[in-house]
Structures are given as C-alpha cells and as structure tokens.
Amino acid sequence: MGRLKIPTLFKPRNQTKLPYSNPIQEGLVQKIETHQDGFPKSVFGFFRRLMSGNKIDGGSRTEDEEKVHSWLYALAQSEKDLVFEYVRSTERGLSFAEADRRLRESGPNVPFDYSFPSWWQLLWKAFFHPFNIILIVLSALSYITSDSPNGCIMLVLVFISVSLRFYQEYSSSKAAMKLSEFVRSPVKVQRCAGRVVQTELVVQVDQRDIVPGDIVHFEPGDLFPGDVRLLSSKHLVVSQSSLTGESWATEKTADIREDQSTPLLELKNICFMGTNVISGSGTGLVVSTGSKTYMSTMFSKIGKKKPPDDFEKGIRHISYLLIFVMLIVVAIMVVTAYHSSHSLSVSFLFGISVASALTPQMLPLIVNTSLAKGALAMAKDRCIVKSATAIQDMGSMDILCMDKTGTLTMNRAIMVNFLDGWGLAKEEVLRFAFLNSYFKIEQKYPLDDAILAFVYTNGYRFQPSKWRKIDEIPFDFIRRRVTVVLKLEAGEESHYSPDHFMVTKGALEEVLKVCSFIEHVDRGEISTFSPEDYQRILSKSEEISNEGLRVIGVATKRLKMQTKDEKRGDHTTLESDMVFLGLITFFDPPKDSAKQALWRLAEKGVKAKVLTGDSLSLAIKVCKEVGIRTTHVVTGPELELLQQDAFHETVKRATVLARLTPTLKLRVVQSLQTVGGHVVGFLGDGVNDSLALDAANVGISVDSGASVAKDFADIILLEKDLNVLVAGVEHGRVTFGNTMKYIKMSVIANLGGIISLLLASLFLNNEPLTPWQLLTQNFLYSVGQIAIPWDKMEEDNVKIPQKWSEKYLPMFILWNGPVCTLCDIAALLFLWFYYKANSTSNIKFFRSAWFIEGLLMQTLIFHLIRTEKIPFIQECASWPVICSTVVISSIGIAITFTPIGSVMGFVSLPLSYLGFLVLLFMGYFFVGQLVKRFYIFVYKRWL
After folding, report:
1. For residue range 250-280, what is the model confidence (pLDDT) as tens digits?
2. Exposed e or buried b per residue across 79-101, where buried means at least 16 C-beta atoms within 10 angstroms of its C-beta
3. 3-state secondary structure (DSSP) of residue 557
4. Among residues 403, 685, 721, 791, which one is catalytic?
5. 403 catalytic per annotation
6. pLDDT tens readout for residues 113-135
7. Which residues contact 768 (CB under 8 A, 6 or more apart)?
8. Which residue among 239, 358, 443, 564 has its CA within the 20 to 30 Å range from the CA of 692?
9. Which residues pair with 459 in a beta bridge?
C-alpha cells in the first residue's frame, strides 16, 4: 500500500525520463512521436485523450509501448558495436562507479512501480455513493426528530452496502499488489575495475541493482534481469511462457540481425525480462530495466479502472433522480404540512417520512441477497464466486473470449496416424516409435503415453520383451529428440541384424537433420535421402499441421558391435547418417462437452471468440471440431500491422485470433468493450492472461491456473467445463432480472405514491398520513420485498443477455407511473364523494383507508411489473413472493382493526370499502395490462 500519487497536469507525456540520459536512445524512440507534418504527436494525443475521456479502446498501443517496441527493434536490427554505442557501454562492461551512478539515476530494477490506494481511500470510495449519502442524511434527520428506529434501520443498510463494496475493492487491490512483488536473486554481471589498467571481473549483483549497459552471463535456470540484447550464445533455449503462456521453448542466437517484419516476441537476438534459460549459455547486454522493459509496459495496465459498469452507472443516475425529485416533493410537503399544522417540528418530521418513503431502502439488501443466492447456486456447480457483482455481469455478458488449450480441448495428446515418407500408413513406423517410447526412461512426455496407449488399445503386439535396452540419449531442448539403443535378444529369429539398433524420434526438422537415407518400407530398400524426399516430407508435414495435427519424425540406424568405451562416445557422431522411417501424428481432441456448451451459450446470445497463442491452423482445427465458425480468422502479427479503425473492425468480425501476445489479448478485450459496446467475459489460466482477466467485465480462471490469474479472476472454476459457465449465465440473468424488477417497481411505486400523497395533501389541506403511519406503511412494504430474490424469471427473459438501458427507464416510468397515480386518485375521489371523508372530522377514516390502499398498491404492483403476461392468470410469481404478498397485505388490513391501529390513529373500515378495493385493483390490473401491451408494441421489450 502506498501514498496516492497526484498526477502532474502540465508535464508533457513525451518527456518521460529514460532509464538514463541517452540522446541516442531518445533519438531512436522519438521517431514514433512525430507526425509526418512535423507536429508532435503528444499535442494530438492530448486533445484525443481530452475528447475521449481517457477511454482505452485497445485499438492502438500506448506511447510507452511504442517506445519499448521501437527501442528493441532498433537494437535487434543493429550490429553489436552499434548496440554498445546506443546504451553507452563497452565490451568490458560498466565500471562500478558508472553502474552506481546509473542506479541512482534510473532507480532500482523493479518492473512494477505502482502506487496502490490505502485502505482508508478504498473505504472512502465505497462510502461516497449517492445512495449511501441519501440514507445517511435521512438517518441523521430521523435521529434529530427523535425517530430513532427509522434512523437505525437506514444506518444498518448503509453499513452492509459499504462493507461489501470495501471488501471487494480491497481484495482486488491486494491481488494487484502481488504482481508488484519482485523476487530478489543474484545475477552474474561483468564489470571492469581499475583506473589505469582496467580488469574485467564477473561479480554477483542483486537483480534490483542491474542497470542498462551491464553485461550479464547466464546459464540454465537463470532469469533475465531486464531486456537483453544477446552478445554471444551457445545452444541457447529460452522459455517465454511467462509472456506468451505457451509451453514450447524458443531458440535464441546472438549471431543474427532481425528485421521489422519479425514479431517482437520472436526476435532471436532479444531476451525479455521475466523469461528464463532452459538450456545453453551466453552473454547479453542489458538494454532496459525496471519500468522501461517490455514486461513492465505489458503489465502496467494491471489494476487500471475497467469500463464503467452500466448497472452501477444506472443506480447512480437513479439516485440523482431521486435526490432531485425528493428535494422538490419534500419541500412542497413540508410547506403544506406547516400550513395545516403550524408546527415546524411536525411538518419537518412529515417531510423526513416522505423522503424515507421515496428512497428504495431495500435496494442494497435486494441486490446483495440476489447476488449471494446466485453465488450459492454456482457453488453447487463447483464454481467459486470471488466477486459477487460478477454474477450480475455474467447475466449481461454477450461475448466470451477463451483460450483453446484445456478449455475447448482435453489438454492431452492422442495419437492419430503413422505414415512413411510418402504419406502411407505403415506399421513399421509405429513399431519403432513404440519401442522408443517403451524403453526410454528419462523425461517421460505426454506424447510417449499417447503412443503407448494407441498401441495397447488397438491390439498391436510388438513384443518389447524380445528387445533389450543398451543405452539412451535423453531429450534436450537443443537437439529436440530422444534416442534409445536396442538389441534383439539372442535366439530370437528376425530379419533384423543381431547388431545394435538405434531408434530416434523427435521434432521433425531435428530428425531430418541427422538423416542421410530413407527407407522404402514396402520394398525393404534403403536409398539416399534426396532434396526431393526432403521437400516432399516437409510439404506433407505442413499439410498435416494445417489440419491442426502435431507431427514428429522417426528414424533408425543399425550399429556395429561396440566396446564399452565406444558406447560413451559423442552423441553427435552416433546421431548421424540415420535412415528416415516416417511420421507420427497427434491431436489434442476437443472435449465432448465443449460443443454442447458452446451451442447452449450461443442459444443464450453469448458469442464465443478464441484468443490463443497457438498456431492459426491448430486453432482452426479445434474450432471446427466444436462448431465455432472459422470464416473470419486473424493472427497477432497481422493485427499489429493494422491501423486503429481496421483493428476494431477486424476484432469485431474475427472468431479465431491466434498467436496473440498478452498485450494483444488485452487490446482485443478493450476493443470489444469500448468500441463494440459488449460485456466481455474472459476465460484464462496463465500469467499471460492476467491483463485480459483484469480488464474483462467478468474474469474467469480455473483452480489449476497460475496464482496471479486466480487473483485477478472474479470467478474460479473447479473444473474446466464450459457447461458450468452456462449455468452461471442463467444465474446471472435471473439475478439481473429480479434486481431490475425491484428497481422499476420501487421507483414507479414510490414516485407514484408520493405524487398521490402530494395531491391528497393539496385536496385535504392536511396530512393524508401521519409520519408514523407513513413510516409503518413503508416498513411493511419494504419487508415484503425481501422475497424478490427468490422469484423466478420467464424463459424468454433468460434467453438473451440482460443489459441496463438508461434510455428505456425514463420511458418506462412515464408510461407506468401515471397508472399507479390514477388508481390512487380514484381511491381519493371515492373516499371524498362516497364516504364524505373530506373534512378534519373524518381525517382518521381517510388515513385508515388511504393507508390500506397505498400498502396494497405498492405490494400488488410487483406482480404487474414482473411479467409481460397477465399476472395470476398466464404467469404466477414464485411461492415465496406470493406468500409474502398475502402476509403483508393481511397485516396491513388487519392492523386497522387492532389496538395497535387505534394507538396509531386508525379506525375500523366498513366491508364495502374492501369490496371497492377489489374492484379498484381489478381495474388497475386491466388498465396496467393495456399500457403494458402498448409499451411492448412500441419498444419491443418490457423489463
């Protein structure tokens, strides 16, 4: 946690300080900050940000990202001598004094420089909400006017609302802080010492003290302490899974000059902060540290504010509307009450009672109860809900972005076929692939299990007991192949030679490198490996890969009898002049449940988009298997080349986006949210998914995912099954629908009731209800609404995404509010003319009748609002809601006949009035249903 940083408003963004003062680096990155007409980009950027309201639409990189890209590409394309000049270093390394100076200037080598809000700032943010302010002000006024019970209830509701919001915000902030933690570890750095004769020294330096210009030495297992331009390399293989999320390793080499067309993460001579060495060794020049690294710019968006939630904005606007109406109505009510009673305290208390009645006090409780109910229902489906508001967002979600591996597929290899060099299925290829997998001991891989499973389940009998293992050359990331040396047991009759037999399998390109011959399995002949053979096999491999299958090669070699010392010879010599035998193909099959789940999501209006780091061909293959359209596909490098408008249009149409970096996943999500206006869910489980998970409206991860991914996720699946999400979408829509029922019903009932109260005050020149009667009516009505979260939703309302629409709410109020007021006016006129309750002497009778009519109106209106159909005839509410309506209505009617009613100023009512109420509400439902049908005809929707 830290201090809140106040931004400097008048400091141009393009004057961001570089890691150290370097005019060459400033010149390199300055190219991206100037338009062709010479005007600084920052000027245009300022006005663009001003007009856009700082919206992040994902269509283009930020200025910091552009600087990092430009800087790294410039280094990748330059000779080593020029690279030293760029970073102002030497082949000997930096001196200790210069390193200290740069460390003081650039600061510690920490990738994430965040200023997280303190707990009290989060508490203030949770507290400062218009709805809470209304309740607190009313509570304070209630205490001042000795209405302590009402004031206490309001404070309890505020406490619940603030506590829940603070807990959610604080948990999110703690998750973001975990990314800012940087593990300290020593790094081997080459420094030079001495004033006259400089000596090169390799010393251990804490990675926080690494500065640009340092030369670092690295070995297997080392993490790169910054962005590094390679100076030398020997069989260097690096894992970039922390950035890409993909498990395969990447070969790096210093002896190459890249060009601008190569994707950033595929640059061979650049290694990135946060990646690690798997095998090999080398040296490199640190070119960027701390917040200037690619990793830092990639994760700099973590914790930034998501697009405003439409539901939350709608609640705020309703709060402002209520404040506006309340100030006007309460002022009129206080003046009217004072005119009749000539008592300021009595009229003020009546005004507070009116304001309390106008405020939907149960809104926090209704919303949170609905969310908690949805969370419990999802927990039964093995789904942990970390952020309750995510359930509501799931109800509005109309696009689900997901990775391919483990979500659509089983995340395990299944062997498909065994082919010779001409693409024909030959059992001999399978035999030797099986023997290799059977006898290898070190580093068993899923592909070995797939080969063994294929052989056993298909009834092949290759009799491994007739063979004996002599030696093994294990797999490594340099050779990318594994070799076993076998011998046929003595006495076994076979067409094989009794000499040792070497079997190799691995990456096709690496197997082809050691082959000089090719076997014609049908004829039992071996011929020299020709360029035509090589091209034919590569073409076949590419054809298979385009079908979404993975390919490995198999080769063999017969060895002469060896002595013990010869067997320990160079592996490079042994793995040479081999005979190419054929190909083995594998497939990560789609889950049986994936296709059905995607169909169910599509049926509910949720479109699926696949965002993966895998190859495009593999992604297309899987998507076709599960029923995702592949007519519009795109790769990450293609997206990088697009202008902003073209980027948004491509993202909108594409259903499969492959070879995406973490920042591209983030930009895709932001584009869909801001430009497309979609509510986006993102399902991911890796560190590389953290950006998109943090930005998405609904972040979804799995129990087996990376800890950072789970921290930023709103929902965690205990099983990687999309059917759980389908259930979550349904729960979300029920929660959203029931919440909207309460909001619309309470606003209409409260506004209609207060307007009726105002008209009655003007008619009677007196209070239609005393403050205590009004508060009792409001309390009974509020208690009756507690059952709303247990109401059911009609099937049609769950089929499509439910979104908050501000433009429909005012029209909904204007159409339906007058119906409620009209009913109240009819009751007022009936009491005025039929019962002559138009004088001070009959005020108790009027108040008793008005109390019952108002309570029944507010209780029954829910049944009209909750459905498009005819209430109680075509569609009934759930049993908890019906029971609540019956109980509250019965209490409201009975209270006027009890001693409590007498104390409150009520009198008994004739049965004829109850008969009138039956006719009145029948008329109300009839008129309300007509208005409902006309409203649906005009706006094509109801809730």
Report:
1. 889 898 888 888 888 889 999 998 788 887 8
2. ebeebbebbbbeeebbbeebbee
3. strand
4. 403
5. yes
6. 545 567 777 777 667 666 667 77
7. 757, 760, 761, 846, 847, 850
8. 239
9. none
